[in-house]
What we know:
By secondary structure, the protein is an alpha/beta fold. It has helices spanning 4-29, 67-80, 98-109, 132-138, 175-179, 196-200, and strands at 33-41, 52-56, 84-87, 118-120, 144-145, 149-155, 158-164, 188-191, 208-211, 240-243, 248-251, 269-277. The model is unreliable at 6-19 (pLDDT under 50).
Amino acid sequence: xxxxxxxxxxxxxxxxxxxxxxxxxxxxxxxxxxxxxxxxxxxxxxxxxxxxxxxxxxxxxxxxxxxxxxxxxxxxxxxxxxxxxxxxxxxxxxxxxxxxxxxxxxxxxxxxxxxxxxxxxxxxxxxxxxxxxxxxxxxxxxxxxxxxxxxxxxxxxxxxxxxxxxxxxxxxxxxxxxxxxxxxxxxxxxxxxxxxxxxxxxxxxxxxxxxxxxxxxxxxxxxxxxxxxxxxxxxxxxxxxxxxxxxxxxxxxxxxxxxxxxxxxxxxxxxxxxxxxx
Length: 278
């Protein structure tokens, strides 16, 4: 039988350990890292060899993520001087409050600078009124919305095609519409908030898919893995470079938090992706 003194001491140590873990989780969530990766794109033109894309995801502005953090993410990204920036959704935290949370976030993101452009698609948390709030607001910014459409980027007379789709869960993603008019054999980079789209709607004409959504699990325990992963494919699309059925997929761990305002072994990141011919 355990003594009362040992029980109190053990409980205190357990509480201190849990408190320390939670405190670390808050600290980790506040410190942005840069992740660098070279990614291959089929049919990439020589003009785009070595060019960089900064991938940002899952801002979740709201009760857990304030505007100071988002502005810091913008400064952090601009200091990296990417050639192009891709924003892959969940700018707001609460779908029902997107009309409150989206405007300041999109305003701050409008300060992002890249010579080849800043492109965006919505996430599931941005879908108030079927995404109309998002579309109305982003139209007032310099950000290029790619919902079910594409944009040709030209450099030294050569082309890269940026395309995007609506959110897989709450939107109406239409890849055929997004790629309509893109020539056969083009180099195509697709923005899709949810990486499951690459698995469920594979298309070999897409050379690279950029996604977020899974937060890298947000909490990752080496012996147990990630207790929470919003993907039908489990750990496959948790983070980083993944081979989908038809295209390579790069999944950002994201910047903000959902569910709980902390991260453990999954720090927020800005991904700097260097393009190369696949």
